[in-house]
Protein backbone atom coordinates (compact mmCIF):
# COMPACT_ATOMS: atom_id res chain seq x y z
CA UNK A 1 0.00 0.00 0.00
CA UNK A 2 1.46 3.33 -0.98
CA UNK A 3 -0.68 5.93 0.65
CA UNK A 4 -0.62 5.58 4.39
CA UNK A 5 -2.88 8.39 5.55
CA UNK A 6 -5.10 11.21 4.34
CA UNK A 7 -4.00 13.37 7.25
CA UNK A 8 -1.26 15.86 6.23
CA UNK A 9 0.23 16.00 9.76
CA UNK A 10 0.57 12.22 9.78
CA UNK A 11 2.21 12.19 6.34
CA UNK A 12 4.65 14.91 7.42
CA UNK A 13 5.65 12.99 10.54
CA UNK A 14 5.99 9.72 8.59
CA UNK A 15 8.50 11.45 6.34
CA UNK A 16 10.43 12.62 9.39
CA UNK A 17 10.33 9.08 10.79
CA UNK A 18 11.66 7.71 7.52
CA UNK A 19 14.45 10.28 7.34
CA UNK A 20 15.43 9.48 10.91
CA UNK A 21 15.18 5.70 10.31
CA UNK A 22 12.59 5.45 13.03
CA UNK A 23 10.30 2.46 12.77
CA UNK A 24 6.53 2.96 12.97
CA UNK A 25 3.49 0.68 13.01
CA UNK A 26 3.28 0.89 9.19
CA UNK A 27 6.80 -0.58 8.86
CA UNK A 28 6.03 -3.40 11.23
CA UNK A 29 2.72 -4.09 9.48
CA UNK A 30 4.51 -4.24 6.12
CA UNK A 31 7.01 -6.68 7.60
CA UNK A 32 4.11 -8.95 8.56
CA UNK A 33 2.94 -9.37 4.94
CA UNK A 34 1.62 -11.74 3.84
CA UNK A 35 -0.33 -12.22 7.04
CA UNK A 36 -1.49 -15.67 8.11
CA UNK A 37 -4.45 -16.67 5.91
CA UNK A 38 -5.74 -19.22 8.40
CA UNK A 39 -5.88 -16.55 11.09
CA UNK A 40 -7.59 -14.09 8.77
CA UNK A 41 -10.27 -16.62 7.94
CA UNK A 42 -10.67 -17.62 11.57
CA UNK A 43 -9.93 -21.31 10.96
CA UNK A 44 -6.87 -21.70 13.19
CA UNK A 45 -7.67 -23.30 16.55
CA UNK A 46 -5.13 -23.10 19.38
CA UNK A 47 -7.50 -23.55 22.25
CA UNK A 48 -5.82 -26.78 23.43
CA UNK A 49 -2.39 -28.37 23.21
CA UNK A 50 -3.41 -30.97 20.62
CA UNK A 51 -3.20 -28.03 18.22
CA UNK A 52 -2.68 -25.62 16.71
CA UNK A 53 -5.08 -27.17 14.19
CA UNK A 54 -6.29 -25.53 11.01
CA UNK A 55 -9.07 -26.28 8.55
CA UNK A 56 -8.71 -26.18 4.79
CA UNK A 57 -10.84 -23.17 3.86
CA UNK A 58 -11.46 -24.59 0.36
CA UNK A 59 -13.34 -27.64 1.63
CA UNK A 60 -10.40 -30.04 1.26
CA UNK A 61 -8.59 -31.88 4.05
CA UNK A 62 -8.26 -31.34 6.94
CA UNK A 63 -11.91 -30.58 7.55
CA UNK A 64 -11.70 -31.03 11.30
CA UNK A 65 -9.29 -30.33 14.10
CA UNK A 66 -7.79 -33.20 16.12
CA UNK A 67 -10.80 -33.15 18.47
CA UNK A 68 -13.29 -33.12 15.58
CA UNK A 69 -14.19 -29.41 15.73
CA UNK A 70 -15.17 -28.16 12.27
CA UNK A 71 -14.69 -24.73 10.71
CA UNK A 72 -18.05 -23.46 11.98
CA UNK A 73 -17.23 -24.29 15.58
CA UNK A 74 -13.67 -22.98 15.38
CA UNK A 75 -14.62 -19.71 13.69
CA UNK A 76 -17.52 -19.04 16.08
CA UNK A 77 -15.38 -19.80 19.13
CA UNK A 78 -12.58 -17.51 17.99
CA UNK A 79 -14.99 -14.70 17.26
CA UNK A 80 -16.86 -14.79 20.57
CA UNK A 81 -13.54 -14.90 22.41
CA UNK A 82 -12.90 -11.54 20.75
CA UNK A 83 -16.26 -10.34 22.06
CA UNK A 84 -15.20 -11.51 25.53
CA UNK A 85 -11.92 -9.58 25.24
CA UNK A 86 -13.68 -6.40 24.18
CA UNK A 87 -16.47 -6.66 26.73
CA UNK A 88 -13.91 -7.37 29.47
CA UNK A 89 -11.87 -4.28 28.58
CA UNK A 90 -14.84 -1.89 28.59
CA UNK A 91 -16.36 -3.43 31.67
CA UNK A 92 -13.18 -3.53 33.72
CA UNK A 93 -12.84 0.17 32.93
CA UNK A 94 -16.39 0.53 34.27
CA UNK A 95 -15.40 -1.32 37.44
CA UNK A 96 -12.55 1.15 38.07
CA UNK A 97 -14.99 4.04 37.73
CA UNK A 98 -17.29 2.43 40.27
CA UNK A 99 -14.33 2.15 42.68
CA UNK A 100 -13.57 5.82 42.16
CA UNK A 101 -17.20 6.67 42.95
CA UNK A 102 -16.90 4.67 46.16
CA UNK A 103 -13.76 6.65 47.07
CA UNK A 104 -15.57 9.92 46.35
CA UNK A 105 -18.32 8.76 48.72
CA UNK A 106 -15.63 8.15 51.35
CA UNK A 107 -13.89 11.48 50.63
CA UNK A 108 -10.67 9.79 49.47
CA UNK A 109 -8.32 10.29 46.51
CA UNK A 110 -9.41 13.82 45.62
CA UNK A 111 -12.50 12.64 43.72
CA UNK A 112 -15.70 14.61 44.24
CA UNK A 113 -19.19 14.24 42.84
CA UNK A 114 -19.51 16.94 40.22
CA UNK A 115 -22.92 16.03 38.80
CA UNK A 116 -25.27 15.43 41.74
CA UNK A 117 -28.33 15.66 39.48
CA UNK A 118 -27.17 12.73 37.38
CA UNK A 119 -26.14 10.90 40.57
CA UNK A 120 -29.71 11.10 41.81
CA UNK A 121 -31.20 10.20 38.45
CA UNK A 122 -29.09 7.04 38.10
CA UNK A 123 -29.53 6.11 41.78
CA UNK A 124 -33.32 6.37 41.39
CA UNK A 125 -33.14 3.79 38.58
CA UNK A 126 -31.59 1.39 41.08
CA UNK A 127 -34.40 2.07 43.56
CA UNK A 128 -32.04 3.82 46.00
CA UNK A 129 -33.82 6.11 48.49
CA UNK A 130 -32.99 9.76 47.78
CA UNK A 131 -35.06 11.87 50.17
CA UNK A 132 -33.18 13.00 53.22
CA UNK A 133 -29.91 11.43 52.04
CA UNK A 134 -26.70 13.28 51.24
CA UNK A 135 -24.91 12.96 47.90
CA UNK A 136 -22.17 10.89 49.50
CA UNK A 137 -24.67 8.50 51.07
CA UNK A 138 -26.41 8.07 47.74
CA UNK A 139 -23.07 7.68 45.92
CA UNK A 140 -22.02 4.93 48.33
CA UNK A 141 -25.28 3.04 47.86
CA UNK A 142 -25.07 3.48 44.07
CA UNK A 143 -21.45 2.29 43.92
CA UNK A 144 -22.33 -0.79 45.94
CA UNK A 145 -25.29 -1.60 43.68
CA UNK A 146 -23.20 -0.99 40.59
CA UNK A 147 -20.48 -3.35 41.83
CA UNK A 148 -23.12 -6.02 42.31
CA UNK A 149 -23.90 -5.84 38.58
CA UNK A 150 -20.49 -7.36 37.84
CA UNK A 151 -20.93 -10.42 40.05
CA UNK A 152 -24.69 -10.79 39.66
CA UNK A 153 -25.58 -14.44 38.95
CA UNK A 154 -29.26 -14.39 38.01
CA UNK A 155 -31.91 -11.99 36.77
CA UNK A 156 -31.14 -9.16 34.37
CA UNK A 157 -28.82 -6.18 34.37
CA UNK A 158 -30.55 -3.06 35.70
CA UNK A 159 -29.94 -0.87 32.64
CA UNK A 160 -31.73 -3.30 30.30
CA UNK A 161 -34.94 -1.77 31.63
CA UNK A 162 -34.01 1.45 29.80
CA UNK A 163 -34.71 -0.32 26.49
CA UNK A 164 -38.22 -0.36 24.98
CA UNK A 165 -40.49 -3.11 26.33
CA UNK A 166 -40.48 -4.90 22.95
CA UNK A 167 -36.68 -5.07 22.91
CA UNK A 168 -36.57 -6.43 26.44
CA UNK A 169 -39.11 -9.11 25.53
CA UNK A 170 -37.12 -10.05 22.46
CA UNK A 171 -33.90 -10.40 24.49
CA UNK A 172 -35.76 -12.61 26.97
CA UNK A 173 -37.33 -14.72 24.22
CA UNK A 174 -33.92 -15.48 22.74
CA UNK A 175 -32.32 -15.91 26.17
CA UNK A 176 -29.71 -13.25 25.58
CA UNK A 177 -30.60 -10.87 28.42
CA UNK A 178 -27.32 -10.71 30.34
CA UNK A 179 -27.49 -11.90 33.95
CA UNK A 180 -24.26 -10.40 35.26
CA UNK A 181 -21.35 -8.67 33.50
CA UNK A 182 -18.56 -10.97 34.64
CA UNK A 183 -20.75 -14.04 34.34
CA UNK A 184 -21.41 -13.63 30.63
CA UNK A 185 -17.73 -13.07 29.84
CA UNK A 186 -16.70 -16.10 31.90
CA UNK A 187 -19.37 -18.18 30.22
CA UNK A 188 -17.87 -17.39 26.82
CA UNK A 189 -14.49 -18.58 28.02
CA UNK A 190 -16.04 -21.75 29.47
CA UNK A 191 -18.23 -22.59 26.49
CA UNK A 192 -15.36 -22.15 24.05
CA UNK A 193 -12.77 -24.17 25.90
CA UNK A 194 -11.93 -27.64 24.59
CA UNK A 195 -14.84 -30.03 24.49
CA UNK A 196 -17.78 -27.79 25.42
CA UNK A 197 -20.10 -25.90 23.02
CA UNK A 198 -19.84 -26.91 19.35
CA UNK A 199 -23.07 -25.42 17.95
CA UNK A 200 -21.93 -22.27 16.17
CA UNK A 201 -25.31 -20.57 16.50
CA UNK A 202 -25.46 -21.30 20.21
CA UNK A 203 -21.91 -20.00 20.63
CA UNK A 204 -22.70 -16.80 18.72
CA UNK A 205 -25.85 -16.20 20.79
CA UNK A 206 -23.68 -16.17 23.91
CA UNK A 207 -21.50 -13.61 22.12
CA UNK A 208 -24.60 -11.44 21.72
CA UNK A 209 -25.48 -11.86 25.39
CA UNK A 210 -21.97 -10.93 26.58
CA UNK A 211 -21.91 -7.94 24.25
CA UNK A 212 -25.17 -6.69 25.78
CA UNK A 213 -23.49 -7.00 29.18
CA UNK A 214 -20.90 -4.60 27.79
CA UNK A 215 -23.11 -2.03 26.03
CA UNK A 216 -25.99 -2.05 28.52
CA UNK A 217 -23.74 -2.93 31.48
CA UNK A 218 -20.03 -2.20 31.83
CA UNK A 219 -19.82 0.57 29.23
CA UNK A 220 -23.06 2.21 30.33
CA UNK A 221 -21.90 2.18 33.94
CA UNK A 222 -18.56 3.68 32.89
CA UNK A 223 -20.27 6.50 30.99
CA UNK A 224 -22.92 7.31 33.56
CA UNK A 225 -20.68 7.18 36.60
CA UNK A 226 -17.92 9.17 34.87
CA UNK A 227 -20.57 11.82 34.28
CA UNK A 228 -21.52 11.68 37.96
CA UNK A 229 -17.91 12.00 39.09
CA UNK A 230 -16.43 14.34 36.50
CA UNK A 231 -19.67 16.09 35.39
CA UNK A 232 -21.70 15.49 32.24
CA UNK A 233 -20.12 17.02 29.15
CA UNK A 234 -21.52 20.19 27.63
CA UNK A 235 -20.73 21.46 24.13
CA UNK A 236 -17.33 23.18 24.07
CA UNK A 237 -14.64 24.28 21.62
CA UNK A 238 -11.22 22.67 21.35
CA UNK A 239 -8.42 21.84 18.93
CA UNK A 240 -7.09 18.62 17.41
CA UNK A 241 -4.02 17.17 15.68
CA UNK A 242 -0.30 17.03 16.37
CA UNK A 243 -0.04 20.80 16.02
CA UNK A 244 -1.60 21.16 19.49
CA UNK A 245 1.80 20.24 20.97
CA UNK A 246 3.71 23.38 21.96
CA UNK A 247 7.33 24.17 21.26
CA UNK A 248 7.77 26.38 24.30
CA UNK A 249 5.67 24.52 26.88
CA UNK A 250 6.00 21.28 28.77
CA UNK A 251 3.99 18.74 26.81
CA UNK A 252 2.37 15.85 28.63
CA UNK A 253 0.49 13.34 26.49
CA UNK A 254 -2.10 11.24 28.30
CA UNK A 255 -2.85 8.03 26.45
CA UNK A 256 -5.16 5.13 27.11
CA UNK A 257 -8.72 5.11 28.35
CA UNK A 258 -9.62 5.75 31.95
CA UNK A 259 -10.42 9.30 33.08
CA UNK A 260 -9.88 8.35 36.73
CA UNK A 261 -6.18 8.98 35.91
CA UNK A 262 -6.32 11.69 33.25
CA UNK A 263 -8.77 13.89 35.19
CA UNK A 264 -6.22 14.03 37.98
CA UNK A 265 -3.34 14.77 35.60
CA UNK A 266 -5.37 17.71 34.27
CA UNK A 267 -5.97 18.93 37.84
CA UNK A 268 -2.28 18.51 38.74
CA UNK A 269 -1.15 20.44 35.65
CA UNK A 270 -2.94 23.48 37.08
CA UNK A 271 -1.18 23.24 40.45
CA UNK A 272 0.46 26.65 41.14
CA UNK A 273 3.63 25.10 42.57
CA UNK A 274 4.17 22.88 39.52
CA UNK A 275 3.45 25.80 37.21
CA UNK A 276 6.10 27.85 39.04
CA UNK A 277 8.54 24.96 38.69
CA UNK A 278 7.82 24.79 34.95
CA UNK A 279 8.40 28.51 34.57
CA UNK A 280 11.65 28.30 36.51
CA UNK A 281 12.90 25.90 33.81
CA UNK A 282 11.95 28.34 31.06
CA UNK A 283 8.72 26.64 29.94
CA UNK A 284 5.62 28.62 29.09
CA UNK A 285 3.21 26.50 31.04
CA UNK A 286 2.19 22.86 31.11
CA UNK A 287 0.32 21.66 28.05
CA UNK A 288 -1.77 18.50 28.32
CA UNK A 289 -2.82 16.74 25.13
CA UNK A 290 -4.54 13.41 24.65
CA UNK A 291 -4.25 10.38 22.40
CA UNK A 292 -6.99 7.79 21.84
CA UNK A 293 -9.98 7.58 24.16
CA UNK A 294 -8.34 9.24 27.15
CA UNK A 295 -8.12 12.21 24.80
CA UNK A 296 -11.85 12.00 24.16
CA UNK A 297 -12.65 11.83 27.87
CA UNK A 298 -10.78 15.00 28.82
CA UNK A 299 -11.76 16.71 25.60
CA UNK A 300 -15.45 16.17 26.36
CA UNK A 301 -15.28 17.58 29.86
CA UNK A 302 -12.46 20.14 29.77
CA UNK A 303 -11.80 20.99 26.12
CA UNK A 304 -8.25 19.62 26.49
CA UNK A 305 -6.70 19.38 23.00
CA UNK A 306 -6.38 16.07 21.20
CA UNK A 307 -2.96 15.23 19.71
CA UNK A 308 -4.27 12.40 17.58
CA UNK A 309 -5.91 9.03 17.21
CA UNK A 310 -4.58 5.48 17.50
CA UNK A 311 -2.13 5.47 14.58
CA UNK A 312 -0.62 8.79 15.68
CA UNK A 313 0.67 7.71 19.11
CA UNK A 314 4.20 7.01 17.83
CA UNK A 315 4.15 10.15 15.68
CA UNK A 316 3.49 12.28 18.77
CA UNK A 317 6.74 10.95 20.26
CA UNK A 318 8.58 11.52 16.97
CA UNK A 319 7.77 15.26 17.19
CA UNK A 320 10.50 15.29 19.86
CA UNK A 321 8.30 17.67 21.85
CA UNK A 322 6.58 15.22 24.20
CA UNK A 323 8.25 15.45 27.58
CA UNK A 324 6.21 12.75 29.20
CA UNK A 325 3.66 10.25 27.97
CA UNK A 326 1.54 8.70 30.69
CA UNK A 327 -0.44 5.59 29.83
CA UNK A 328 -2.99 3.46 31.61
CA UNK A 329 -4.77 0.70 29.66
CA UNK A 330 -5.83 -0.33 26.13
CA UNK A 331 -4.62 0.62 22.64
CA UNK A 332 -1.10 1.43 23.88
CA UNK A 333 1.48 0.12 21.40
CA UNK A 334 4.26 -1.92 23.04
CA UNK A 335 6.61 -0.25 20.54
CA UNK A 336 6.39 2.99 22.53
CA UNK A 337 8.96 1.75 25.01
CA UNK A 338 11.75 1.44 22.43
CA UNK A 339 10.69 4.53 20.49
CA UNK A 340 10.67 6.82 23.53
CA UNK A 341 14.26 5.61 24.12
CA UNK A 342 15.27 7.48 20.94
CA UNK A 343 14.05 10.76 22.45
CA UNK A 344 14.07 12.47 25.84
CA UNK A 345 10.42 11.45 26.25
CA UNK A 346 9.66 9.83 29.58
CA UNK A 347 7.14 7.02 29.32
CA UNK A 348 5.24 6.12 32.49
CA UNK A 349 2.86 3.23 33.05
CA UNK A 350 0.35 3.57 35.87
CA UNK A 351 -2.14 0.71 35.90
CA UNK A 352 -1.89 -2.51 37.92
CA UNK A 353 -2.97 -4.16 34.67
CA UNK A 354 -0.26 -2.76 32.41
CA UNK A 355 3.50 -2.77 32.86
CA UNK A 356 6.07 -2.50 30.05
CA UNK A 357 9.61 -3.91 30.31
CA UNK A 358 12.14 -1.14 30.96
CA UNK A 359 9.47 1.51 31.52
CA UNK A 360 9.07 3.32 34.82
CA UNK A 361 5.88 2.32 36.61
CA UNK A 362 4.21 4.76 38.98
CA UNK A 363 1.44 2.74 40.51
CA UNK A 364 -1.79 4.70 40.31
CA UNK A 365 -3.82 4.24 43.45
CA UNK A 366 -7.22 5.90 43.31
CA UNK A 367 -7.01 6.68 47.04
CA UNK A 368 -3.85 8.81 46.39
CA UNK A 369 -4.88 9.98 42.94
CA UNK A 370 -4.07 13.68 43.07
CA UNK A 371 -0.77 13.20 44.91
CA UNK A 372 0.41 10.66 42.31
CA UNK A 373 -0.76 12.83 39.44
CA UNK A 374 1.38 15.68 40.81
CA UNK A 375 4.36 13.32 41.00
CA UNK A 376 3.87 12.41 37.33
CA UNK A 377 3.62 16.07 36.29
CA UNK A 378 6.82 16.82 38.25
CA UNK A 379 8.57 14.07 36.21
CA UNK A 380 7.47 15.84 33.05
CA UNK A 381 9.03 19.08 34.26
CA UNK A 382 12.33 17.25 34.90
CA UNK A 383 12.15 15.59 31.51
CA UNK A 384 11.64 18.96 29.78
CA UNK A 385 15.12 20.00 30.92
CA UNK A 386 16.51 17.17 28.76
CA UNK A 387 14.57 18.10 25.60
CA UNK A 388 16.79 18.53 22.53
CA UNK A 389 15.41 21.47 20.50
CA UNK A 390 17.19 20.14 17.37
CA UNK A 391 14.93 17.08 17.45
CA UNK A 392 11.69 19.05 17.71
CA UNK A 393 9.42 18.86 14.64
CA UNK A 394 5.84 19.80 15.39
CA UNK A 395 3.64 19.85 12.27
CA UNK A 396 1.73 23.08 11.85
CA UNK A 397 -1.57 21.23 11.70
CA UNK A 398 -4.50 21.74 14.02
CA UNK A 399 -8.24 22.02 13.46
CA UNK A 400 -10.97 23.48 15.59
CA UNK A 401 -13.91 21.40 16.73
CA UNK A 402 -16.91 21.32 18.99
CA UNK A 403 -17.24 18.31 21.25
CA UNK A 404 -19.14 17.51 24.42
CA UNK A 405 -22.48 16.24 23.15
CA UNK A 406 -24.45 13.64 25.09
CA UNK A 407 -27.78 11.91 24.73
CA UNK A 408 -28.99 14.13 27.56
CA UNK A 409 -27.85 17.44 26.16
CA UNK A 410 -27.69 17.47 22.41
CA UNK A 411 -31.16 16.70 21.30
CA UNK A 412 -32.71 18.71 24.10
CA UNK A 413 -30.40 21.45 22.85
CA UNK A 414 -32.07 20.95 19.47
CA UNK A 415 -35.39 21.71 21.11
CA UNK A 416 -34.16 24.91 22.71
CA UNK A 417 -34.52 25.98 26.32
CA UNK A 418 -38.31 26.00 26.32
CA UNK A 419 -38.84 22.88 24.30
CA UNK A 420 -36.21 20.58 25.71
CA UNK A 421 -37.33 17.29 24.22
CA UNK A 422 -36.45 14.95 21.39
CA UNK A 423 -39.56 16.15 19.52
CA UNK A 424 -37.68 18.40 17.07
CA UNK A 425 -35.30 15.58 16.17
CA UNK A 426 -38.08 13.04 15.71
CA UNK A 427 -40.10 15.57 13.69
CA UNK A 428 -37.11 16.28 11.46
CA UNK A 429 -36.85 12.56 10.71
CA UNK A 430 -40.60 12.17 10.27
CA UNK A 431 -40.95 15.10 7.85
CA UNK A 432 -37.86 13.98 5.92
CA UNK A 433 -35.56 16.91 6.60
CA UNK A 434 -33.27 14.29 8.12
CA UNK A 435 -33.04 10.93 6.38
CA UNK A 436 -31.82 9.20 9.53
CA UNK A 437 -28.81 8.98 11.82
CA UNK A 438 -25.66 6.86 11.80
CA UNK A 439 -23.08 6.22 14.53
CA UNK A 440 -19.55 6.07 13.07
CA UNK A 441 -17.17 4.66 15.65
CA UNK A 442 -13.97 2.70 16.18
CA UNK A 443 -10.31 2.60 15.43
CA UNK A 444 -7.58 3.09 12.86
CA UNK A 445 -5.83 0.15 11.27
CA UNK A 446 -2.76 0.15 9.02
CA UNK A 447 -4.68 -2.21 6.71
CA UNK A 448 -6.73 0.84 5.58
CA UNK A 449 -5.45 4.30 4.61
CA UNK A 450 -5.45 6.14 7.95
CA UNK A 451 -8.66 8.19 8.50
CA UNK A 452 -9.73 7.78 4.86
CA UNK A 453 -12.67 5.44 5.41
CA UNK A 454 -14.02 7.42 8.39
CA UNK A 455 -13.96 10.68 6.51
CA UNK A 456 -15.20 9.37 3.16
CA UNK A 457 -18.11 7.51 4.76
CA UNK A 458 -19.03 10.51 6.91
CA UNK A 459 -19.00 12.88 3.94
CA UNK A 460 -21.25 10.61 1.85
CA UNK A 461 -23.78 10.33 4.64
CA UNK A 462 -23.81 14.06 5.42
CA UNK A 463 -24.43 14.89 1.76
CA UNK A 464 -27.48 12.66 1.90
CA UNK A 465 -29.01 14.40 4.93
CA UNK A 466 -27.89 11.80 7.44
CA UNK A 467 -26.90 13.10 10.85
CA UNK A 468 -23.66 11.48 12.07
CA UNK A 469 -22.80 10.85 15.71
CA UNK A 470 -19.29 9.69 16.41
CA UNK A 471 -16.98 8.40 19.14
CA UNK A 472 -13.44 7.08 19.63
CA UNK A 473 -10.77 7.40 16.95
CA UNK A 474 -13.45 7.88 14.27
CA UNK A 475 -14.53 11.15 15.91
CA UNK A 476 -10.89 12.30 16.02
CA UNK A 477 -10.49 11.52 12.30
CA UNK A 478 -13.56 13.59 11.41
CA UNK A 479 -12.45 16.38 13.73
CA UNK A 480 -9.04 16.66 12.05
CA UNK A 481 -10.63 17.40 8.69
CA UNK A 482 -12.99 19.99 10.13
CA UNK A 483 -16.25 18.04 10.14
CA UNK A 484 -16.86 18.80 13.81
CA UNK A 485 -17.12 22.56 13.20
CA UNK A 486 -20.54 24.17 12.72
CA UNK A 487 -19.27 25.57 9.38
CA UNK A 488 -19.01 22.01 8.10
CA UNK A 489 -22.80 22.08 7.73
CA UNK A 490 -22.43 24.64 4.91
CA UNK A 491 -19.55 22.83 3.32
CA UNK A 492 -20.56 19.20 3.60
CA UNK A 493 -24.19 18.63 4.58
CA UNK A 494 -27.25 18.12 2.41
CA UNK A 495 -29.89 20.88 2.53
CA UNK A 496 -32.09 19.30 5.21
CA UNK A 497 -29.28 18.56 7.62
CA UNK A 498 -27.80 22.00 6.89
CA UNK A 499 -31.06 23.69 7.87
CA UNK A 500 -31.10 21.92 11.21
CA UNK A 501 -27.43 22.56 11.98
CA UNK A 502 -27.75 26.24 11.04
CA UNK A 503 -30.87 26.73 13.15
CA UNK A 504 -29.19 25.38 16.27
CA UNK A 505 -25.54 26.14 15.56
CA UNK A 506 -24.29 22.57 15.81
CA UNK A 507 -21.86 20.66 13.59
CA UNK A 508 -23.26 17.94 11.31
CA UNK A 509 -21.10 15.39 13.14
CA UNK A 510 -21.72 15.21 16.88
CA UNK A 511 -18.90 13.97 19.09
CA UNK A 512 -20.37 11.73 21.78
CA UNK A 513 -17.09 10.77 23.46
CA UNK A 514 -14.90 7.74 23.98
CA UNK A 515 -15.59 4.11 23.08
CA UNK A 516 -17.37 3.32 26.35
CA UNK A 517 -19.56 6.29 25.41
CA UNK A 518 -21.03 4.27 22.57
CA UNK A 519 -23.51 3.58 25.35
CA UNK A 520 -24.60 7.20 24.74
CA UNK A 521 -25.71 6.05 21.28
CA UNK A 522 -27.88 3.39 22.93
CA UNK A 523 -29.46 5.90 25.31
CA UNK A 524 -30.04 8.26 22.39
CA UNK A 525 -31.98 5.48 20.66
CA UNK A 526 -33.96 4.96 23.87
CA UNK A 527 -34.90 8.65 23.88
CA UNK A 528 -35.89 8.64 20.20
CA UNK A 529 -38.20 5.64 20.60
CA UNK A 530 -39.55 7.09 23.85
CA UNK A 531 -40.39 10.41 22.17
CA UNK A 532 -42.76 8.58 19.79
CA UNK A 533 -43.69 8.59 16.14
CA UNK A 534 -40.87 6.34 14.94
CA UNK A 535 -42.01 2.90 16.02
CA UNK A 536 -41.76 0.93 19.21
CA UNK A 537 -38.33 -0.62 18.95
CA UNK A 538 -34.80 0.29 17.84
CA UNK A 539 -35.01 -2.05 14.85
CA UNK A 540 -37.74 0.13 13.33
CA UNK A 541 -35.63 3.32 13.33
CA UNK A 542 -33.85 4.71 10.26
CA UNK A 543 -30.45 4.35 11.95
CA UNK A 544 -27.26 2.34 11.46
CA UNK A 545 -23.80 1.87 12.99
CA UNK A 546 -20.38 1.64 11.37
CA UNK A 547 -16.77 0.88 12.30
CA UNK A 548 -14.98 1.57 9.00
CA UNK A 549 -11.35 1.14 10.20
CA UNK A 550 -11.77 -1.25 13.13
CA UNK A 551 -8.86 -3.15 14.68
CA UNK A 552 -9.68 -3.86 18.34
CA UNK A 553 -11.64 -6.67 19.96
CA UNK A 554 -13.59 -3.86 21.58
CA UNK A 555 -14.97 -2.90 18.18
CA UNK A 556 -16.32 -6.44 17.74
CA UNK A 557 -18.01 -6.26 21.14
CA UNK A 558 -19.57 -2.90 20.21
CA UNK A 559 -20.72 -4.24 16.83
CA UNK A 560 -22.30 -7.23 18.55
CA UNK A 561 -24.26 -5.07 20.98
CA UNK A 562 -25.42 -2.78 18.19
CA UNK A 563 -26.69 -5.82 16.25
CA UNK A 564 -28.22 -7.36 19.39
CA UNK A 565 -30.00 -4.03 19.90
CA UNK A 566 -31.53 -4.23 16.43
CA UNK A 567 -29.16 -1.99 14.45
CA UNK A 568 -27.69 -2.61 10.98
CA UNK A 569 -23.92 -2.43 11.52
CA UNK A 570 -21.21 -1.92 8.93
CA UNK A 571 -17.56 -2.97 9.36
CA UNK A 572 -14.95 -1.93 6.78
CA UNK A 573 -13.02 -5.18 6.79
CA UNK A 574 -14.78 -8.44 7.65
CA UNK A 575 -14.60 -10.13 11.01
CA UNK A 576 -12.22 -13.10 10.83
CA UNK A 577 -15.07 -15.46 9.89
CA UNK A 578 -14.77 -16.04 6.16
CA UNK A 579 -13.54 -19.60 6.77
CA UNK A 580 -17.08 -20.50 7.81
CA UNK A 581 -19.80 -19.58 5.32
CA UNK A 582 -22.34 -20.57 7.99
CA UNK A 583 -20.99 -18.13 10.59
CA UNK A 584 -20.70 -15.42 7.96
CA UNK A 585 -24.32 -16.01 6.94
CA UNK A 586 -25.47 -15.94 10.55
CA UNK A 587 -23.84 -12.55 11.13
CA UNK A 588 -24.92 -10.95 7.86
CA UNK A 589 -28.35 -12.52 7.43
CA UNK A 590 -29.85 -15.04 9.89
CA UNK A 591 -29.35 -12.89 12.99
CA UNK A 592 -31.72 -10.28 11.56
CA UNK A 593 -34.63 -12.70 12.11
CA UNK A 594 -33.69 -12.84 15.77
CA UNK A 595 -32.69 -9.29 16.72
CA UNK A 596 -33.68 -7.11 13.75
CA UNK A 597 -30.03 -6.10 13.34
CA UNK A 598 -27.24 -7.60 11.24
CA UNK A 599 -23.69 -6.92 10.03
CA UNK A 600 -22.41 -6.09 6.59
CA UNK A 601 -18.78 -5.82 5.53
CA UNK A 602 -17.71 -3.36 2.84
CA UNK A 603 -14.29 -1.80 2.40
CA UNK A 604 -15.35 0.93 -0.03
CA UNK A 605 -16.90 3.74 2.06
CA UNK A 606 -18.96 5.07 -0.86
CA UNK A 607 -20.53 1.66 -1.45
CA UNK A 608 -21.02 1.26 2.30
CA UNK A 609 -22.80 4.63 2.45
CA UNK A 610 -25.08 3.53 -0.41
CA UNK A 611 -26.01 0.36 1.45
CA UNK A 612 -26.62 2.25 4.69
CA UNK A 613 -28.81 4.80 2.90
CA UNK A 614 -30.83 2.02 1.25
CA UNK A 615 -31.39 0.64 4.72
CA UNK A 616 -32.47 4.03 6.12
CA UNK A 617 -34.89 4.46 3.22
CA UNK A 618 -36.27 0.96 3.75
CA UNK A 619 -36.91 1.71 7.41
CA UNK A 620 -38.55 5.01 6.47
CA UNK A 621 -40.85 3.21 4.04
CA UNK A 622 -41.77 0.58 6.65
CA UNK A 623 -42.71 3.39 9.04
CA UNK A 624 -44.71 4.99 6.20
CA UNK A 625 -42.70 8.20 6.46
CA UNK A 626 -42.45 10.69 3.61
CA UNK A 627 -39.37 10.32 1.37
CA UNK A 628 -36.41 12.52 2.33
CA UNK A 629 -37.42 16.13 1.69
CA UNK A 630 -34.41 17.29 -0.30
CA UNK A 631 -32.28 14.26 -1.13
CA UNK A 632 -34.87 11.68 -2.16
CA UNK A 633 -32.33 10.49 -4.70
CA UNK A 634 -29.04 9.48 -3.19
CA UNK A 635 -26.09 11.75 -3.87
CA UNK A 636 -22.63 10.23 -4.12
CA UNK A 637 -19.28 11.82 -4.84
CA UNK A 638 -21.02 15.02 -5.90
CA UNK A 639 -23.10 13.20 -8.52
CA UNK A 640 -26.85 12.81 -8.18
CA UNK A 641 -27.62 9.32 -9.35
CA UNK A 642 -30.54 8.99 -11.69
CA UNK A 643 -31.01 12.75 -11.92
O1 LIG B 1 -11.51 2.40 22.76
S1 LIG B 1 -11.44 3.53 18.82
S2 LIG B 1 -8.18 2.36 18.57
S3 LIG B 1 -8.68 4.20 21.31
S4 LIG B 1 -10.42 0.61 20.50
FE1 LIG B 1 -8.60 2.06 20.64
FE2 LIG B 1 -10.23 1.69 18.67
FE3 LIG B 1 -9.27 4.06 19.18
FE4 LIG B 1 -10.52 3.82 22.37
NI1 LIG B 1 -11.94 2.30 20.85
Q: Characterize the largest beta sheet: strand count, sense, and whether it forms a barrel.
A: 6 strands, parallel
State the helical fraction. Answer: 40-55%
Structural class: alpha/beta
What would you report as the Rg, rounded to the nearest angstrom? Answer: 24 Å
- List the ions, cofactors and other small molecules found in this model: FE(4)-NI(1)-S(5) CLUSTER with Oxygen
Unreliable stretches: 638-643
Euclidean distance between termini CA atoms: 36 Å
Q: In order across it, which strands form the biggest sheet?
A: 6-5-4-7-8-9
Q: Can you count the beta strands?
A: 18
Overall geometric form: globular
Q: How confident is the prediction overall: mean pLDDT?
A: 95
Kindly estimate the percentage of residues that lie in beta strands according to DSSP: 5-15%
Number of helices: 25
